[in-house]
Input
Amino acid sequence: MWFFNKMCMSKARLDSKTVVITEASGGIGKETARDLYARGARVILACRNMEKTNEAVEDIKSNPPSWMRKDEYKNNVGELAIYFLDLRSFKNVKDCAKNLLTNEAAIHILINNAGVAASPYEKTEDGNETTLQVNHLGHFLLTLLLLPKMQSSSSSCRIVNVSSFTYIFADIDFDDINMEKSYALLGSYVQSKLANILFTKELARQLKEANIHGINIYSIHPGLIPTEITRHTSNTLFRGASFCYNTCTGLFFKNAEQGAQTTVYCSVDEKTANETGLYYSQTIVSTPKNCGMYPVVFCIWNQKKILPRF
Output
């Protein structure tokens, strides 16, 4: 319920810090951008719909987060920038990463926020099921391409992977990872969310093993929120499904700003600076229930079979 929602209480500033947020044109991505912009960060909105993203930028500039007064907002904010990113295309992911590496002096925080759910079955130009590629494989590739820049940017960088509590329903069939034999609308979503958590755990482990310090990785459950991630459900589940979901979540669970709080917490809070590889819900560390049954290493090395050489 909304009255149990926890807000990030950290007053940390992000002056001189650069943040990349995927699909920050709406929902919790936009509210995360608003919060970090208010803290003085240079916030990069890496999105697919440029018109919608430009509108989001204007909204963020005009309206502060609920914890800041409007007069204070105008004098203490950072910068906003837009990059084109289409996670459905590995080529575009690499182009976006190249532009970021070329144009940005540093990257301190990467927030892999973009997601789709309950979309009709289709494959990307790279031959992967769309939900798997947008929610996980595209972010996997983007993260690895930006890691060297982050490593050279600061001794305290963070990567936040937006997952979901629905991972508990996931069943990854490694012999049919693209669900060609039996596609399930919600099954494709939950397996991608489990993959987000496994990727977080494994990347943290491998960075430690390689003696690379100063890059902390987190996976988070934002809560039930009315966002556009359900936009396909009225066509794929039943008429009015998106309206029903957004109405119920808006009334009884969280709004977009509340849903962004765990992402913000893992991005700025002083306590989380000493944590990595963990899963968070309601700004609290939670233990993933069934992740141990899957080979975590899948989320790094087996993707050589799926991802192009880079």
